Amino acid sequence: MLKRTIYSLAIVALIAGCSSGTKLNDAPVTDRTGGAGSQGAASGVAPVTIDPNAMNAAGPVGVSRIVYFDYDSYTVKPDFQSLIDGHARFLKASPNRRVSIEGHTDDRGGREYNLALGQKRSEAVRRALALLGVNDAQIEAVSFGKEKPAVSGSGESVWAQNRRAEITYR
């Protein structure tokens, strides 16, 4: 009886020690397009024109492929809406193209936590593309956590460059 009680308490302590106070299951991506006809100046986002001759293996020409995030966050900032819109237009115009969204974190925090946060970042970009009409079958969301930093070192400027989701065309 005493062994069972000690064993049960050990399991409860182990589970409690693995929990985190940060909620990673909230969905921070929202559809703010206001409908199909609200592009351009009305939405405050300049429209992206896709030239069929400008399409290549790297994705749309002149459109960045990196979305940056705040510390301990996976919310896509409004600054990156035009970037996501450009990739959404490219993918909708090329239904046979596939994209991988790779989530990354800075080197602070544990490996498991950073893998989960990187996955949430890639999923947030995937959801933003899906809200713009990209077929889910064209998008794969993966996480590298802190394993593939863009920049080595420490300090806020380095960490800010590593908190990202990269859009890679296949």
Describe the structure in your own words:
The chain is an alpha+beta fold and 170 residues long. The chain has a domain of 106 residues: 60s Ribosomal Protein L30, Chain: A, CATH 3.30.1330.60. It has 4 helices and 4 strands, in the order αβαβαβαβ. A 4-stranded mixed β-sheet has the order 1-4-2-3. The chain is globular and about 65 Å long. About 9% of the residues have low confidence.
What structural keywords apply?
alpha+beta; 170 residues; 4-stranded mixed β-sheet; 60s Ribosomal Protein L30, Chain: A; 4 helices
How much of the sequence lies in strands comes to: 5-15%
Derived structural class: alpha+beta
Measure the end-to-end span: 58 Å
Regions with pLDDT < 50 over 5+ consecutive residues? Answer: 35-42, 50-56
Characterize the biggest β-sheet: 4 strands, mixed
Morphology: globular
Helix content bin: 25-40%
What is the CATH architecture annotation of the domain at 65-170?
2-Layer Sandwich
What string gives the helices and strands in order?
Answer: HEHEHEHE
- With strands numbered from the N-terminus, the spatial order across the biggest sheet is 1-4-2-3
Gyration radius, to the nearest Å?
A: 20 Å
Number of helical elements? 4
Mean pLDDT across all residues, rounded? 80
